[in-house]
Amino acid sequence: MTTTTPSPTAAGSGANASEAFRASSERRGPAATSQERTDRVVRRVLEAIHQVVREEEVTYPEFQAAKRWLMDVGEGGEWPLFLDVFVEHEIEKVAARTQRGTVGTIEGPYYLPGQTRLPAVATLPMRADEKGDKLVFSGQVRDLDGHPLPGAEIDFWQADADGYYSGFAPHLPDGNLRAVVVADDQGRFEISSIKPAPYQIPTDGPTGALISAAGWHPWRPAHLHLMVRADGHRQITTQLYFTGGEWLDDDVATATKDELVLDPTPTAEGWAVEYDFVLERA
Ligand code: DHB
Ligand code: FE
């Protein structure tokens, strides 16, 4: 992390992440949860908390600290950040039990829909002086039988070389390092970008306060985010990591999977790597 780049505050990215989540849940439609399911799941969550209180003999001062912290998370707009780091990975693993094709992982709080659509061979929108090693990421989107999926969309977002996401860090231009790349008639694509840096979840808000109070670390390994979709097929949401990268085995968000680690090769300009996606029928 450099100190020359203005740091986005936790409150700033938290507020944006809350707004982005509200918009996305409207897009995804109403939550379908029955009374039976609410009763069962919420009761079991509460029972799990009660059990910890009993077994750990949680005190009144600890209860007060927890209450104050929960209020701070809400007021700071950090629920999307906190839940995507500490809970989403288990939701995703349950979803993965019934999914075939390329494995998924968490979406995280920083997806923004409606980005610039680009053709199959594309350079992501970036600043003229965008820092970082060049990375050419190419591949093919196929179905489970190996047939190419022409016109598949790769909805791509990543942090910059300082670990910041456009739309959540005011010093970055809107849409920086984000695009929807449309694969060619063979389902192929080639995206030119830069290698992102490891990402540190905001440390100056309540989530950061908890992480330091507990003696944890706030780092995620460097990663690319993608959604891949094609007509008639199940959309996948995943991330790709880099072999040998720092924090790969100790991701604060517990969202790495062996199948999702890239091994780029050096080129004259930077790095190149291929990765193919496999989608199952919807
Ligand atoms: C968070 C950030 C990410 O880039 C990500 O992939 C997951 C979680 C976060 O700050 O909560
Ligand atoms: Fe991320």
From TrEMBL:
Protein known as: Catechol 1,2-dioxygenase
GO molecular function terms listed in the Swiss-Prot or TrEMBL record: catechol 1,2-dioxygenase activity
Residue span of region Disordered: 1-37
UniProt keyword Oxidoreductase present: yes
Native species: Pseudonocardia benzenivorans
Keyword Iron carried by entry: yes
Cofactor or coenzyme needed: Fe(3+)
InterPro entries tied to this protein: 1_2-CTD_multi_dom, Catechol_dOase_N, Cchol_dOase_actb, Intradiol_dOase_C, Intradiol_dOase_core, Intradiol_RC_Dioxygenase
EC number: 1.13.11.1
One Pfam family cited in the UniProt record for this chain: Dioxygenase_C
Domain Intradiol ring-cleavage dioxygenases: 137-165
Family classification: Belongs to the intradiol ring-cleavage dioxygenase family.
Gene3D superfamilies linked: Aromatic compound dioxygenase, Catechol 1,2-dioxygenase multimerisation domain-like
Record's keyword terms, sorted: Dioxygenase, Iron, Metal-binding, Oxidoreductase
Biased composition (Low complexity): 1-15
Enzyme class: oxidoreductase
Signal sequence extent: none
